[in-house]
Amino acid sequence: MLHPPFRPRTPRAAAQTRGGLRPFAFAGCMLLAAIAIAWAGTLTTAHAEDAGAVESGTFTIDESHVHAAFRVSHLGFSDTIGGFKKISGSFTLDTDDLAASSVDVIIDTTSIDTGWAKRDEHLRGDDFFKVATFPDMTFTSTSVVPTGDRSAAVTGDLTMLGQTHPVTLDVVFNQAGKHPFTGKYVAGFSATGTLDRTQWGMTYGAPALGTQIALLIEAEGILEE
Predict the structure, then answer these.
(1) Residues 86-108, buried b or exposed e (16+ Cβ, 10 A)?
(2) The dihedral of CA 87, 90, 96, 98: what is its sign?
(3) Rounded CA gap, 9 and 78, in Å?
(4) Spans of the chain below 70 pLDDT
């Protein structure tokens, strides 16, 4: 089931310290995984409701309608929220055999955005994403397990900082059909999940700075012609 979306809170001055940057970095990476995983939710619903109601094919993620947000505790005083501005990828939906569906996502780590330039600059450095060496994060799905008529648990490999570990998200299919303005066939979904940033070697500030990163993803894919 999709968890209720969190409400962003205004970061306090304390969140602007070096420590406040670390959590964002990890969260951001995980978002990449979340986005890729979310597509699978669409597959599950298509199978559960009517394989003929949702079209199979390869969908390109709509970069103007994909949002990957993360939330992490800042020393217990408040939660810091951020995301990435550049996310791309695609997913192949097979309504006849969900297990045959797949998804690949790429996140530009240099595009991290937490609403404060100095913090973002720090996150791009060696303490966190090391963007000079690892400019991208990638996610490749490995399994899709239906959990309801419109939901699924999607697992995939998230590669960040040269390490690859599995991430599982709770995905909910929203709807699929022709876009009322463009006429293109679109599939949309929402996803939530959590991950432990230290698994990818990002231990800066832990455990004072939150290690459990909450993820919130909203995305749409356009069926390729």
Answers:
(1) ebbbbbbbbbeebeebbbbbbbb
(2) negative
(3) 8
(4) 1-52
Integer Cα distance of 112 and 30 in angstroms: 12
Where along the chain do its domains lie?
16-223
> What angle separates helix 18-49 from helix 117-124, to the nearest 10 degrees?
80
Locus of tokens 């409400």: 7
CA 219 – CA 207 distance, rounded (Å): 31
Per residue in 180-216, pLDDT (tens digit) is: 999 999 999 899 999 999 999 999 999 998 999 999 9
The reported pTM is 0.75
Distance CA 167, CA 112 (A): 20
For residue range 102-123, what is the model confidence (pLDDT) as tens digits? 888 999 999 999 999 999 999 9
Which residue's structure tokens are 């089931």?
1
- Does the domain formed by 16-223 have CATH 1.10.8.470? no
